[in-house]
Amino acid sequence: MREETLTRALNRYDQSPHLVFWETTKACSLACRHCRASAQLDALPGELSTQEGFALIDQIADMPGPSPILVFTGGDCFARADLARLIGYARSRGLRLGIAPSVTDRLTREALEEMYALGVRSVSISLDGANPESHDTLRGIPGHFDKTIETLHMMRDLGFRLQVNTTVMKHNAREMAEIFSLLRETGVSIWEVFFLVGVGRGIQILEVDPADAEDICHFLVDATSYGMTVRTVEAPFFRRVQAEREPFGAEDPRSHFELGELYGALREGLGREEGSNDRPIRSTTLATGDGRGIIFVGFDGEVHASGFLPIALGNVKSESLGDIYTANPLLTTIRSGQFIGECGRCDYRRLCGGSRARAFARSGEVLGDDPSCIRTRVARRIALPLA
Ligand code: SF4
Questions:
Q1: In this structure, what are the phi and psi dihedrals at residue 386, rounded to the nearest 5 degrees?
Q2: Domain range spanning residue 259?
Q3: What is the pTM for the complete model shown?
Q4: Which atom from ligand 1 is nearest to the alpha carbon of 349?
């Protein structure tokens, strides 16, 4: 990203976020092993009421500058009986919307048609494996993989813009090329890859190590050359990898960077599934991160820099989201890039800034190093250009 474009984007994020995630409920009929929200079958006490939801939508619509995109998430947003009313109100206030439902029996064609009629065009669902064994084991529901693929086809036929979220972990890292190919076949336009942070039920499952995270980021850069938008969540160092790769265009990065066996396997898988490709890689995505362009409102109105960062910054029941976002001292510190350790010294701290959620989960220091970035390792194998 060019310096002036980056500065403009970051200045804009001082005034208002680009994305607001609203965890409309904790209720969900799934019990995925890696669930950030530790979702429950039933809604928890204190969930924002319909009227409080309307008030939150007003707060978002009244923020200065271009209105943020509001994403209805959960739990399962379809577990809220008033979802259509909330969406209708948000549309009446001119907000751009996305929904991120769980794939359950509630996600019917009729329910999706209603969303489309209300003006929703963007839906994201999760797929965490390239085959039923892998995905269903994580979700704990036999047949869930097939249902997810079927749902993607249905949503595509209804005209939605499809986003798939994949949480990358040790157990599925080697399936990433096959997952990518499956998404291309299904007409998905955005692939958002979550790098697990050990919170909620996710604490029970192993995160990928920094060397593997670096290999996966290089693979994801390769994947952008096939025309799909690829983004990461809680791995902003993907943007560093994109920037480091830019001067070398479509060249094999192993000529310039020290990469591991996982990268080789994923690159080979990509070639096998999709054919070779010398089209240019896509450039850097928005320089958003926890509390910088992104804000999360919990089921009870508590505001967090990210759904993976359990530090409460205020509550929309008593303060406006805009005031919390612009004035909270932690958020202003994050946006000014005043980090501790390697992230604080890093040339990429404005473009990347590290996962604040992972820094906090690992060390309790929210401004500390993101331990999944290879640059933050003391005995690290830096993926810098080879001598
Ligand atoms: S050291 Fe920190 S700021 Fe630099 S690339 Fe790694 S995570 Fe990003």
A1: -70, 150
A2: 3-289
A3: 0.91
A4: 3
